Amino acid sequence: MTTIEQFSSEELDPGIRPQDDLFGHVNGRWIRTAQIPDDRSSYGSFMILRDQAEIDVREIIEAAAASGAPVGSDERKIGDLYASFMDETAVEASGARPLQPILARIDSATDTDAFVSLLGAFAREGIGGFVGVRAAVDRGNPERYLLHLFQSGIVLPDESYYRADAHDEIRRLYVGHMARMLQLTGVAGGPEAADVAASVMDLEMRLASSHWDRVATRDAVKTYNLHTAEELLGRLPIARRWFEGMNADPAAWSEVVVSQPDFLEAATVAFDDVEVARWQQWLAWRTVTSYAPYLSREIVDENFAFFGTVLTGAPSLRARWKRGVSLVEGALGEAVGRIYVEHHYPPKAEAQMAALIDNLIEAYRVRIAELGWMAEPTRQRALAKLDAFTPKIGKPVRWRDYSALAIEPDDLIGNVQRARAFDTQYDLGRIGRPVDRDEWFMTPQTVNAYYQPTMNEIVFPAAVLQPPFFDPDTDPAYNYGAIGCVIGHEIGHGFDDQGSRYDGDGRLRDWWLPEDRERFDVKTTALIDQYSGLSPRELSDEHKVNGALTVGENIGDLGGLAVAHHAYRLSLGGAEAPVVDGLTGDQRFFVGWARCWRVIDREAEAVRRLTIDPHSPAEFRANAVRNIHAFHDAFGTSPADALWLEPDERVDIW
After folding, report:
1. Burial track 367-395 (b if 16+ CB lie within 10 A, e otherwise)
2. How far, in Å, CA of 97 to CA of 108, rounded?
3. Alpha carbon distance 156, 46 (integer Å)
């Protein structure tokens, strides 16, 4: 098991100058010797921590299974769910038979009303239709929850996979994979399977042609469209029957948010044009893909061959125990998390994180107060939003109640169905209740962090609070460059191109003076242009970063870097930072940042992420320092260096 040790300057690559490539200087030696595990499509700092968290969770699960906990307890459910997945003998003996009752329901839904009702029932059970639904805080009134409807209906990563010439081969392989899966699961046999696959692909192509692209779907304003029930029925006439099939109270959809209104209209036309029999085939395929990971090995292998190897480049399926851990995490994540923090979250980490966050917020306050491009009325509202930030560190204050979820040790597919229905009920149950501001949307054992605009909160799970992101026993310069920048990044999402459209209460409203928004847009456009010309080093020049898709995360990176460096300087209290291991404090700060982005990708995964990921590739995240004046001062850059940008070309927003 690879672990990440405390930083040493011996890691640095002397053959790559930090002035030319900070990412390579910090990570070059590691990259030359690192190997991506066969069951991974990428590898690096995040994955190393996730691997360790996975091992820690496995120990928790196995201990729960061996504990003899009483029936109905969280520990018993954890152990029984894992046991149902790990009983490979029973899974192999069942083959695809567990799907037959589900597929029979599709076969019996031969008229429009019955089929639409089934779509609703399946949505409750976690099998998506051509419209997705979830409950979320209302962006226009963050004191309530509303149902949100959004485009769906396709299986490939996004709409571009159905239209771009670069994905021709993937589309061909997808249809072949679909035909083989339909045969393996008994949905269609022989030549019929190829015909069914072609028909399903045709429907997915039609739905995809009406999907908004990823740049449009991240627009907080465009995707906020309040509809009454009557207005929704005007766009999606089947909505009433669909919600009835979902067993949703009519009050739950008396008012909804529609993310892509014209997609609903296009999907309605498609539904009217295409006979029910073809939609049954399409739903059967969605059912197969939904349950494939829990069926016999030949089905699992074929499923992985496409979604793992073809789409991401990973050559080997993950070990069964790892997939079992993922199942338990998805179904009982907070039950596991409650135990995880008892063993893996030291109290001193929480105290140091609180101090770091305080310094980061103060640095933001100082920088906002000194912004030369922002007028005073907008500045005061920005400071008010900053004052309203809520940080959540380590773990929730209240754990989720799983008492209504039934788990059996010998019923894998039933467990999956019940867990999905439990989640749907939990989601729908939000409607009409007060907004729960203590709720977390990640488990404590998740190696990640997030900003939630409607809550105006930043959340840092326990598992991310360890090296290389945070080490309570290491140099403050390094911690500010690593976890400090991550904190600054997440706070910065409150002021990126989309987060800045929400006020301090989490309400989507325009609190900017028009001239300030115009100046902000000039800066973000410059950032879009800067990133749009970049190609990852492992790919050919034809593969470019989508600057418009990644602009929010890039703003977060720049804000995080600039503000975390300011916070680091504040933490020194005017004292001079010591030289440690041959590096100044500022140099160690930037090394800490670059070390976080120690990542290598397989080629297929690098291409996939360029298409769908709102984050820039790791090397460009590390080398975002080219926009930071303090980086150029720390390493004495000059116009001859590759990372040099003329001062007036450096994008400095926050």
Report:
1. bbeebeebeeebbebbeebbeebebbbbb
2. 17
3. 25
CA nearest 181: which of 85, 99, 298? Answer: 298
Place of tokens 């959340």: 459
609-627 pLDDT, tens digit per residue, is 999 999 999 999 999 999 9
- The secondary structure of 597-609, three-state, reads CCEEECHHHHHHH
Cα gap 138→199, rounded to integer Å: 38
* Strand-pair partners of 42: 601
Tell me if 300 sits within 8 A of 292, measured CB to CB. yes
CA dihedral 209, 524, 569, 366 (to 10 degrees): -110
**Mean pLDDT across the chain, nearest whole number?**
95
**Count of H helices and E strands in the chain?**
27, 9
In this prediction, residue 347 has a pLDDT band, given cuts at 50, 70 and 90, of confident
What the block records as the tokens of 392 is 């959540």
The per-residue pLDDT for range 286-333, each reduced to its tens digit, is 999 999 999 999 999 999 999 999 999 999 999 999 999 999 999 999
Residues of the chain above pLDDT 90, percent = 92
pLDDT of 5 above 80: no
- Nearest-5° Cα angle at 473, 467 to 479: 55
What the chain holds in terms of domains, given with CATH numbers, is 1-34+462-654 (3.40.390.10), 111-292 (1.10.1380.10)
Q: What six digits make up the tokens of 321?
A: 């125990």
* Whether the Cβ atoms of residue 445 and residue 336 lie closer than 8 Å to each other: yes
Q: Which residues pair with 452 in a beta bridge?
A: 457
Run of H or E including 289: helix 276-291
CA-based nearest residue to 580, from 595, 596, 591, 593: 591
Q: What are the CA-CA distances from residue 217 to residues 97, 213, 222, 228, 633 (Å)?
A: 38, 6, 8, 21, 39
For the record, the structure tokens of 258 come out as 């529609």
Quote the CA–CA distance of 128 and 75 in Å, as a whole number.
30
Q: How does strand 131-138 pair with strand 450-452?
A: unpaired
Residues facing residue 227 across a β-bridge: 256
- Pairing of β 141-151 and β 42-44: unpaired
Cβ count near 526 (within 10 Å): 15
* Rounded Cα gap, residues 293 and 300, in angstroms: 5
Q: Which of 143, 135, 58 is nearest to 339 (CA)?
A: 58
Residue 258 has pLDDT above 60, yes or no: yes
Tokens representing 439? 């709720």
**Which secondary structure element, helix H or strand E, spans residue 459, and what is its range?**
strand 457-461
Determine the straight-line distance between the first and last CA of the chain, rounded to whole angstroms. 40
Q: If pLDDT is split at 50, 70 and 90, which confidence band does 540 have? A: confident
* 108-159 pLDDT per residue, tens: 999 999 999 999 999 999 998 999 999 999 999 999 999 999 999 999 999 9
pLDDT for residue 230: 97
Q: Which amino acid appears at position 140 of this protein? A: G
Torsion of Cα atoms, 215 then 218 then 221 then 224, to 10°? 120
User: How many CB atoms are closer than 10 A to CB 273?
Assistant: 9
pLDDT of 1 over the 50 cut: no
